[in-house]
Structures are given as C-alpha cells and as structure tokens.
Amino acid sequence: MRFALNHILAPKLPLEQFFAAARTLGATEVEIRNDLPDVVTTLSPAEVRAAAGQAGVTIISINALYPFNVWSGDLPARAETLADYARACGARALVMCPLNEGKPVAFDDLVTALTAMRPILRDRGLTGLVEPLGFPVSSLRTKREAVAAIEAAGGADTYKLVHDTFHHHLAGETEFFPDRTGLVHISGVADAGVPVADMLDPHRVLVDAADRLENIPQIRRLLAAGYDGPFSFEPFAAEVHGLPDPIAAAGQSMDYVRSAL
C-alpha cells in the first residue's frame, strides 16, 4: 500500500517537520492544506517546493478549493490563484470540495463549474480531485453524481475522484469507482454513541479495531479492483492533534491496516 499523510494529521507541526516526519514512516507522498493549517497564505510556493525537495516527498495535493461547484463571485479568481500556487510549489493536484451548507446545487451548475475549472487545471498540468462529501447538508454526496458531471463536462482527462472512507460511509454509497479514483482519504470513527447521520469531522480519528466506518472492507475492495494510488490519513479529531506524537500514532494505524488486510 502507498500510505500518504495529510497535514491535518499533525497541524501543529511546521511544514518542514511534517515532511520529515512522513519520511520516518516510509511515506513519500503528502498533502498540504489551505485551512488547517493554512500553508498557502503563510509560506511562499518556493519555500514549500524547497522543503519538499529537501525531505524527498511529493506533494500530491493541496486541500482544498471550496465550494468548487458554485462558480460565481470570487471563486474563479480564487481557483486560478490556488492553481498557480499548486503549480509553483510542485503539487500534482487540487482537491475540490462542494458546497456543504444545506443548500442544493443543480447538476447543471456542477457541470458548469467543472467545465470552467478544466482549462485552469490543464494549463497548469494539474489534476482536479473531486471529493463528494457525505454529510446530509452536502450539495454533492455521491461519487456516482460526480462521475456523471465529469463526463458531461468532458473532463475525464482532467478529473479524478477522491474516495473518502468517512464520506463514502456517511452517504450510504455502495458503488466504487477504482479506475476513476486518484486519491483515497482514510479516517475512522470509534465513538459508539454518535449516529451515522450526526458524524462530523471532529469525530474522525485514526483507523483501528474500533472503527465503525468499515475502512478495511473499503480498502480491500479498492485494492482488489486495481486501485494502486495513495491512501492518505486525514483525521480531523482534536484528540489526534493533541497526541504527544500523532505521527507515531499514524504509524500504528498503518500497521493495523496492513495486518487487518
């Protein structure tokens, strides 16, 4: 398996230390963020590129452009700025998340956004990683709808899916699209008291034997179907961020996943 680390795993670590820590686990692929922590507005792309080169890691994505499916206001300008940053820092892709505020977005508007975003990505040699969010308030919950919109936009050469094990479970989705998937985000929920419909990012911990999201069956199915891309740890829970050594905890989760498979 190709494990990767999302900076949300250890947001308190400065970027250089985060990159170096990934290498201690044998991971050579990382994701940086423009929120938690906000690397994009605090470091120049040249600094990020230099740090990645020094550590010997590949930046697989910047996470994320939001809300990508509402192509109005300042979004087009923000999309170009973020894509410019991604190209300059050496990132391979942009994660693109839909509106998640309880307001619907029409399928045609989703297609419009993907169509408009396509040349921005292609001109910079980037992949767009479309990540459906399984929350009940999300405007794009399923990978099936994302694939249909990508096809309608003629974007199969530009876009891939993010299969997020948390969001896959929340959406009640049963379909897998391994050949359309460019990245897998993995996290678990161990809290036995929270109903699935009430699960939120703060519930997302590292995957272990108490996981309720069926991470292992999901991963097993993706691998069996031929997915050979990275599996990136993306735990949002404060209890993970507050660990004395979240990187070591991620290593233990890697060991668990390998043994469970």
UniProtKB/TrEMBL annotation:
InterPro entries linked to this entry: IolE/XylAMocC-like, UCP036778_sugar_epimerase, Xyl_isomerase-like_sf, Xyl_isomerase-like_TIM-brl
Every Xylose isomerase-like TIM barrel domain range: 19-259
Pfam families assigned: AP_endonuc_2 (PF01261)
Name used for this protein in its record: TIM barrel protein
